[in-house]
Amino acid sequence: MKRCLLPQVMSVISTMIFQNYQLQTPIQARATKRISIQVILISSSTFGNLKTSHVTIAKAVRKRF
Q1: What is the pLDDT of residues 15-62, one digit of tens each?
Q2: CA separation (Å) from 51 to 27, 28, 64?
Q3: Is the pTM here over 0.70, yes or no?
């Protein structure tokens, strides 16, 4: 079940990051991708619910930037 959710969470977080932070360089993009994956692993293992994960991801992303 959680494996099926992962692509959805991934698209949510990548959309959110690129809308909010307008990344310009490949180095920044790589760093962001690494952060996203860490956050996704944390949130998907803790919550099965996409809505809850989205909130958690948003909080974690805000802390990192």
Answers
A1: 666 655 555 566 666 776 777 666 666 655 555 555 555 566 666 666
A2: 29, 27, 20
A3: no
Q: Which two tokens stand for residue 40?
A: 């996704």
Helix axes 2-21, 26-46, angle to 10 degrees: 140
Token pair of 62, please? 């805000």
pLDDT of residue 48: 54
